[in-house]
């Protein structure tokens, strides 16, 4: 049976009361079960209060399973927080548009962007346009659920393979957005901005989303991870891009997610179901490129940054003597500190790599458009050496999707 602990306020999720009623006798108290107090903060649930050890002992039979389950959920919720931090460090480096202007009115975020003639944004992401990190996250996540699924699945697997015994990718139709994001885009040869959302909508006077097509029915398709926690056999959603709908929680119990946020589940499959390379630029068996130069370069870009981020994650964890399990089991204060240090380390390491990433794209494009086998071999060898010089694994097994 866990000791009693003083209550603290959770400032990241729902605010927890400093006082509560003893779960055994109902008396007002400030003491809580220390076994799950920290886990309650992480998960965002109310703490269990006891006025003393006698009452805690009396209530232990009823509280034991809840205490155990909360402690089991804690590392999963902290993994979700870390995955979201990593996604928000990674995403600005691979975004292919230049965000030029952002406006916020009530629950509607509108931004304007331009697309150049290449696969790359012409300028680094415009962080200076945002004074509110949540608005920035909403813009970065707009229309990016497929990108997050494709590019973050390896990190999901690395962190959760021992904690979760099932991992899947799911496509759902979203309902009840708390915010909407409207995206207007222009191309290099056309000064006219056009809204690109497949479901143009606005909020009416009651705050409800009104759609201009599909007969007024929402059709937001959204991709997320679903995992089963090995210790409790509970299913949870990991949603890294729900900021585009005004939500900022990364881990949500599956049944709650279905009830509150989903119109219909469209597709459920194993990790790897969503394959962005099909809209990228790989060769088929005859050596023919599937798609355009820009898509080839974009696919190489996301893999370049993903591989470098994996290197930096491994390096930082070794330097800090923390494997994923140890990091995710830290108390909330310790985890918040270390996870932010890790995110800052990754951000610093990825800064200044734009030219190198573009150069890697040149190698990829040359290889995919060269028909001479001998020349292809030379380009591949040069590319491997170039990647190794930028701290990216040069083993073919690590790069099997690169070519």
TrEMBL record:
GO terms for molecular function: zinc ion binding. Coiled coil: none annotated. Pfam families: zf-MYND. It comes from the Eukaryota. Residues 22-67 form the MYND-type domain. Transmembrane segments: none annotated. Keywords: Metal-binding, Zinc, Zinc-finger. This is MYND-type domain-containing protein. It comes from Cladophialophora chaetospira. The lineage of its organism: Eukaryota, Fungi, Dikarya, Ascomycota, Pezizomycotina.
């Amino acid at each position: 049976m866990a000791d009693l602990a003083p209550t603290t306020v959770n400032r990241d999720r729902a605010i927890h009361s400093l006082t509560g009623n003893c779960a055994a006798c109902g008396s007002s108290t400030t003491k809580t079960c220390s076994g799950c107090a920290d886990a309650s903060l992480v998960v965002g649930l109310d703490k269990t209060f006891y006025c003393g050890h006698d009452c805690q002992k009396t209530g232990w039979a009823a509280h034991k399973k809840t205490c155990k389950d909360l402690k089991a959920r804690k590392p999963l919720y902290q993994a979700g927080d870390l995955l979201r931090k990593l996604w928000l460090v990674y995403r600005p480096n691979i975004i292919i548009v230049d965000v030029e202007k952002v406006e916020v009115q009530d629950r509607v975020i509108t931004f304007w962007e331009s697309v150049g003639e290449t696969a790359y944004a012409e300028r680094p992401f415009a962080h200076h346009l945002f004074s509110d990190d949540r608005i920035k996250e909403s813009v970065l996540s707009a229309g990016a659920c497929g990108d997050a699924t494709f590019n973050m699945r390896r990190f999901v697997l690395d962190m959760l393979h021992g904690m979760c015994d099932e991992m899947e990718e799911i496509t759902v139709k979203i309902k009840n957005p708390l915010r909407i994001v409207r995206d207007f885009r222009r191309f290099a040869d056309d000064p006219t901005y056009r809204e690109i959302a497949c479901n143009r909508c606005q909020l009416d006077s009651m705050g409800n989303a009104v759609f201009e097509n599909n007969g007024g029915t929402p059709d937001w398709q959204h991709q997320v991870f679903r995992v089963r926690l090995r210790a409790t056999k509970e299913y949870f959603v990991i949603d890294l891009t729900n900021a585009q709908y005004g939500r900022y929680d990364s881990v949500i119990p599956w049944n709650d997610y279905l009830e509150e946020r989903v119109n219909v589940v469209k597709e459920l499959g194993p990790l790897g179901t969503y394959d962005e390379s099909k809209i990228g630029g790989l060769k088929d068996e005859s050596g023919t490129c599937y798609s355009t130069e820009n898509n080839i370069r974009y696919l190489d870009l996301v893999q370049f940054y993903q591989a470098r981020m994996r290197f930096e994650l491994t390096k930082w964890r070794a330097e800090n003597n923390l494997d994923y399990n140890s990091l995710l089991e830290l108390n909330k204060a310790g985890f918040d500190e270390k996870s932010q240090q890790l995110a800052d380390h990754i951000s610093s390491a990825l800064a200044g790599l734009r030219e190198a990433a573009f150069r890697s794209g040149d190698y990829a494009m040359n290889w995919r458009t060269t028909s001479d086998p001998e020349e292809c071999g030379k380009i591949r060898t040069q590319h491997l050496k170039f990647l190794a010089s930028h701290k990216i694994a040069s083993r073919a097994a690590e790069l099997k999707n690169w070519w």
